[in-house]
Amino acid sequence: MNERRRPQGRENAPRRADRFAQRPEPQAEAEGQLEGRNAITEALKSGRTIDKVFVAQGDTDKGLQRLAAQAKEAGAVVVSVDRRKLDAMSATHAHQGIIALAAAHEYATIDDILEEAADRGEIPLIVICDELSDPHNLGAILRSAECAGAHGVIIPKRRSVGLTATVAKASAGAVEYMKVARVTNISNAISELKEKGVWVYGTAAEGSIPMYQADLTVPAAIVIGNEGDGISPLVRKHCDVMVSIPMRGRISSLNASAAASVLLYEAVRQRT
């Protein structure tokens, strides 16, 4: 990768750490359960192994029956059950009459993500999620990352939601195509990326430069912070540059998934 001048505006000033110390673990939710038609359709398209499918008994919707038939053809056991059982099984409370039990998602590595970029002949574009607890946010980020052509998403093993049924549904099936690395320590992962030539951009309202001045044409990783507290002080310290998204209204910030989308598509704009 080409050498380049270090970006202006590196900002390492930490915020108070006490409020980060008490972040609760997100409520556990089983991985491998898929809910809703989009999530199951994309899982089948991607070739993911589905072991069992539960379909609402008596539902005559042709699309639902067609999807169940596709799952059966792919080797899944299809069982008709009372809708109340689906309601009890559902983590999303929006199962659309079908729930599948699939093989647990296999997480990627950082090297897998960088190899994905190399295989596609593209400059790496990565999203790093710093302790996101809302599965809808992670799912939406996966969807935006896939649509923007990013090569992978990195999440921590602790104090973060994993690839659950809610995440899969919120991603509209993007989870089946996006490489997700689950790492022990986000700061160490950032150091590894930097050693491999990737510039790391944190996001904060008080960032040292506006996002339009950030050079996202280079190998880049965009760090998105926790919904309530933003990027933790230690992770912020490891970022090369902190960038801000211009705010013109009365609300001072975007939610995590919206911020990720804005930065991802700024990268797309710069690279086009």
Task: List its traits.
272 residues; elongated; 10 helices; alpha/beta; seven-stranded parallel beta sheet; four-stranded mixed beta sheet; 35% helix; 60s Ribosomal Protein L30, Chain: A; Alpha/beta knot
Please, how many helices?
Answer: 10
Measure the end-to-end span. 19 Å
The radius of gyration computed from the alpha-carbon positions, rounded to a whole number of angstroms, is: 20 Å
Give the strand content.
15-25%
CATH uppermost class of the largest domain: Alpha Beta
H/E element string?
HEHEHEHEHEHEHEHEEEHEH
Stretches where pLDDT falls below 50 for ≥5 residues?
A: 8-22
Number of domains: 2
The largest sheet is: 7 strands, parallel
Helix content: 25-40%
CATH fold description of the largest domain: Alpha/beta knot
Q: Averaged pLDDT, please?
A: 88
Could you write a compact summary of the structure shown?
The protein contains ten helices and eleven strands. The chain is of the alpha/beta class and 272 residues long. Strand 2, helix 3 (62-73) and strand 3 form a beta-alpha-beta unit.
